[in-house]
Amino acid sequence: MPATSLSEYLIEKQKKLAHLNDGLVSVLVDLAEACKKTAHAVNQGALTHSLESLDSINVQGEKQQALDVISNDIFLAFADQNKHVAGLVSEELPDVYFPHHLQSDADQFPAQRYLLAFDPLDGSSNVSLNISVGSIFSVLPCPDAVQQPQAQAFLQAGKHQVCAGYAMYGFSTMLVITLGDGVDCFTLDETTDEFVLTSPEMKIPQDANEFAINMSHQRFWEPAMQRYVGECLQGVEGVRKKDFNMRWVASMVAEVHRILVRGGVFMYPTDSKIKKQGGKLRLLYEANPMSFIVEQAGGASSTAYERILDIIPDHIHQRVGVVLGAKHEVELVNAYHNR
Ligand SMILES: O=P(O)(O)OC[C@H]1O[C@](O)(COP(=O)(O)O)[C@@H](O)[C@@H]1O
Ligand SMILES: [Mg+2]
Ligand SMILES: [Mg+2]
Q1: Number of domains in the chain
Q2: From the CB of 119, is ligand 1 less than 6 Å away?
Q3: What is the CATH number of the domain that holds 314?
Q4: CA 297 to CA 325: how far, in whole Å?
Q5: Do residue 270 and residue 179 come from a single domain?
Q6: Do residue 217 and residue 326 come from a single domain?
Q7: What is the pLDDT of residues 259-269, one digit of tens each?
Q8: Binding residues for substrate
Q9: What integer pLDDT is reported at residue 107 of this predicted model?
Q10: Does the global pTM surpass 0.95?
Q11: pLDDT tens digits, residue range 176-205?
């Protein structure tokens, strides 16, 4: 069976999906190119002194890594020349970014326009350790006839995403996307510089025996989370009557990818330490795109209290608690929290 390239895949999907118009195809093709370029920058790593931390602090109050800025610039450069991108929100920028093409042809914008929210480099704390990192993106429809979409335009519930995806920069570069018609995974063929479909229709088993959470925060968790993890740790001797394994990579892309490949549940709950800021992970460019992918693969995603894709954001850098993966595990976590 000859390998299917990303462009061949998109042509086939266009026959099936009415919303996959030429504008959205061009946005997705540019995002894939931005991921290829970022993969190259990550792979060059120490050779280009890009594994270092910078003195600059981003809008999250976090020290930026050189690769946070390099990858951010790569994504902006692609958007600057794509007329179908009306505005961007990035983890690394305080406000909405307007692509340069808007300056040149202010009143000639195409009908098919989209808003991009993205995390240019996810898992930044792993950059200098050569542990897998990635990029995460979310594509929303742009409200009609708005020349320069303000922050308000981005405050749409995640269920309105038309496309979402992530790239993972591991020993091979992978691109996982959903267009609302299942989840497909591509691998970058270094010999042809093409993304090739390698895992079509990824599915998450409804049950799991592997969980991921940063255990060092245990003393700050709510009682319901203490109970859920406690029961997993009791294993076959406890009420769950089965043993659980544990993983924590500290790169959300790697955690979600593991869950798409072999199942499990990933949790970064809102606890007493981070309650004031609402959580750790960001709704628009981490929780929403990953929740769309996970749900499209048959899993579930919540804050432990409500479905993430139903949340109407308050602001562009809003943080939320995240519990995602195997449906039955997420439902159990929700049940313990909502009881
Ligand atoms: O350092 P911690 O608390 O384990 O948090 C790890 C989490 O933080 C993140 O690194 C946050 O993302 P960024 O690296 O994009 O800021 C997630 O990828 C990961 O799941
Ligand atoms: Mg991130
Ligand atoms: Mg990041």
Answers
A1: 2
A2: yes
A3: 3.40.190.80
A4: 9
A5: no
A6: yes
A7: 999 999 999 99
A8: 122-125, 214, 280
A9: 56
A10: yes
A11: 999 999 999 999 999 999 999 999 999 999
